[in-house]
Write a structure and sequence with these properties.
Elements (H helix, E strand, L loop, with lengths): L1 H6 L3 H11 L19 H12 L9 H5 L18 H4 L2 H27 L4 H29 L8 H53 L1
Helix pairs in contact: 3-7, 6-7, 6-8, 7-8
Length: 212
């Protein structure tokens, strides 16, 4: 849980303080990896790095990451990673990459929904995008670490040690995804509260208008 503490910042504390001034997937990509096919792993990492480089400009390319440019094709890697088949068949490799895809999807959808609602001011949106950006970058670091663990040329270690590293990466990704689910849920609750309040104010305005 030490990893979560590094990037956990309560959403409500910030958003409600800003509020006083101003008055989650049906399309999740399913992966299927095995020893023969690792789904263009290196190419995916390169695309993700290029996409994350512009996240600070306002999430312009997250859509590309989660759609066509982020499609995982079942083709052979150029220079298939040569580690033990028992390691490459390990189910947590698939789950780690799947969780990364879910992080990208949920960040993109969560931010886009809140921005489109027009119920959050620029300060709040900047705060939310900053949390999402940090999660994306940290999860990308986990994928880079996974690639190192799977690369025979990079690290010399036995199967047991590789599996232990994969387990640790898996736990870290689970923590990030759990935090993101909680963060987006809080934001969604606040969004619904504001929408309800806005509708209530409109109704009251209509009533007062009729009375006049």
């Amino acid at each position: 849980m030490k990893h979560k503490a590094k990037y956990f910042v309560p959403l409500f504390a910030f958003l409600f303080s800003v509020c006083s001034v101003m008055g989650q997937s049906s399309e999740v990509i399913q992966l299927s990896l095995n020893v023969e096919k690792l789904a263009q792993f290196r190419s995916i990492l390169k695309q993700m790095k290029q996409g994350y480089a512009v996240l600070n400009s306002g999430y312009r390319t997250v859509k590309d990451l989660s759609e066509g440019n982020f499609t995982l094709h079942r083709t052979f890697l150029d220079g298939l990673l040569r580690v033990s088949p028992s390691v490459l068949r390990y189910r947590k490799i698939v789950e780690i990459i799947d969780m990364q895809v879910r992080v990208v999807e949920q960040c993109k959808r969560g931010y886009s929904r809140l921005r489109a609602s027009l119920l959050f001011n620029p300060q709040e949106l900047h705060y939310i995008s900053g949390i999402h950006d940090r999660l994306l970058r940290l999860s990308l670091g986990n994928l880079n670490e996974l690639l190192l663990v799977l690369s025979e040329q990079t690290l010399e270690m036995g199967d047991g040690e590789r599996l232990s590293h994969i387990d640790a990466i898996h736990r870290q990704m689970e923590e990030k995804l759990h935090f993101l689910d909680h963060f987006n849920t809080e934001a969604s609750i606040l969004h619904l509260q504001r929408k309800k309040e806005m509708n209530s104010n409109r109704s009251m305005g209509k009533i007062h208008g009729m009375e006049q």
